[in-house]
Structure formats: structure tokens, C-alpha cells
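Re: NDP structure - here you go.
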Amino acid sequence: PRTPLTLLGTGAMGTALGRAWLAAGHPLTVWNRTPERTAALTAEGAVAAASAAEAVAANRLVVVCLLDDASVGAALEGVELAGRDLVNLTTGTPADARARSAWAEERGARLLDGGIMAVPPMIGAPGAFVLYSGRPEVFEEHRDTLAVPAGTEYAGADPGLAALLDVALLSGMYGMFAGITHAFALLRGTDVAPKDLAALLVPWLNAMAGSAHGTAERLRSGDHTSAVVSNLAMQVAGSGTLLRTAAEQGVSTELLAPFLDLMRRRLADGHGEEDISGLVELLRSR
Ligand code: NDP
């Protein structure tokens, strides 16, 4: 028999998670602030509880997937949590996760925090994963159930770690989105089909993403000048080409300029022989 569980929050993500558990045969109790939004899951066999308190009382394992940390506080206000294992998949900051964990422990519950690295259509399919941190016993005990909607990565006992890594991954993603946005803008006034740029950009970005391993190694050793193939001085010299091309195309440099400014500052500080990884030290010194 599959472990029964409760799901608080049947928005886009909660509904995708719930579907995966139902499809795998887990008895599922659901609650949502707007009750109509549980219909998709009750049609597939979930039981809707009349209140969050009733939903929490139904099962020891309670997965929470609400908009933000404030909604978690609002939904669970006054609800009896003693003896529950709360798995909080609501996105928040590391401090939110630590405070919510202490809040749960004060109420006699154990909390595992999670950061979902997927969009709803990816849930239940390969590639989706959830970063977890907090109570290791909760992760061990429920790992088979947690592995149903997405892969699992346990980051450590500090409840803030999953949120920190989640935001680190999202931050890397937004840097990539910024670059992609600028790249497409550069096609202004040309006959280049956007799809032709995409066909070049995707393999290029995939090839460049591996540079993160080099950055990791340089941060470990503390030596940003080892095995450098594109030193900072050369890259700063080349950055003028990027800025002038944007000017020629009539495209704003507002996404590109902040990063190029950091490169110039690091060079001015005397680090021209370094890899771009040295910029991490510059950001940390602020
Ligand atoms: P939705 O906007 O679809 O759903 C939000 C949910 O939060 C609804 O159940 C909503 O209830 C509930 N809610 C909002 N405010 C309150 C409140 N004050 N009290 C009680 N319940 C409240 O968002 P998602 O399902 O997409 O996102 C849920 C979580 O998953 C978020 O933390 C998000 O960051 C995370 N996530 C989402 C991803 C995505 O691509 N969608 C990707 C990765 C993480 P109601 O129906 O009543 O409004």
C-alpha cells in the first residue's frame, strides 16, 4: 500500500504534484483556500477536506505548496500540527525556511523544506527534481513518496539550504535569460530568422555552461589564474566590440553593461590574468 498524504494548495504546481501521487496510487487528501480549485484532483480520486485543519488531521505526511511563506502562515494559523511531518514546497528565502522550520518544531511538527526545480508540465516526467533540506529523518522516511512527482536531492540539515540552492539555480537561469534577450535584440533590422539564432544559441550556451565546473575548481583552490584560456584582460579588450555592435544595431546595453562593468573593475584592481571566475570574489567583497 502507498503512503497516504495531504496536500495543501492546489494551484498550478500543487495540482501537478497531486496528479502524480494519485497516478502512483497514493491516497491523497487535498485542501485549497478557494475550494473549487480542488476539482481537478477530486475528479481523479483525491478527497477534499473542508478546512486546512481537517486536511492536516487526515495524514501524518503533509505537503504544502502555496504561493509564498505568508500564505503558509495564513493557511496553517491555529492548525494542530503536533506529530505531523511537513514538507514545505513553497518557494521562499533561506531565512523564511529557517524561521518556518523553527515555527513548525515549536508546534511539535518536523519540517523538511523543498525547492522545486521544474515547471508544472515537467512534474512526473524525467528531468524534474526537488532540492530538500532540513530534518534528515523526514527525508529518509518519506523519500519513496517524495520521489514520485520528481527526482530528489537532499542538500543537508540546515533548513535554509534548499532555498539557497534553489535561488542560486534561478539566479543562474536569469543571467542566461538576460543574455538570450540581448542576443535576440541584436537581430534588429536584419533578415535573420529568430529560429536560426535559436538553433545556434542553444548548443553554444550548452557548451559554455560547463564553465561552472572550472569556476568551482578555482573557488576551491582560491587560484583564479590556473588553467585560464580566456583571461580577463583579453575579455575586457573584446567587450568594446559587444558594446559597439549593440550601438550599431540600436540596441540598449542595459542588460550587458553591469556585467562588463564588473569585468573592468576587476581588471582595474590588477587581476587581468584571471579567469572570469574572479568576479565572484568581487561580488562577495561588496
Ligand atoms: P498558483 O498561483 O497557481 O497557486 C497558488 C496557491 O497558493 C493557490 O493554492 C492559492 O490559493 C494559494 N494561496 C495564495 N495565497 C494564499 C493565502 N493567503 N492563504 C492560503 N492560500 C493561499 O501558484 P503555483 O501553484 O504555480 O505555485 C505554488 C508554489 O510553487 C510557489 O511557491 C511557487 O514559487 C512554487 N513553484 C512554482 C513553479 C511554477 O512554475 N508554477 C515552479 C517552481 C516552484 P487560491 O487558489 O485560493 O488562490
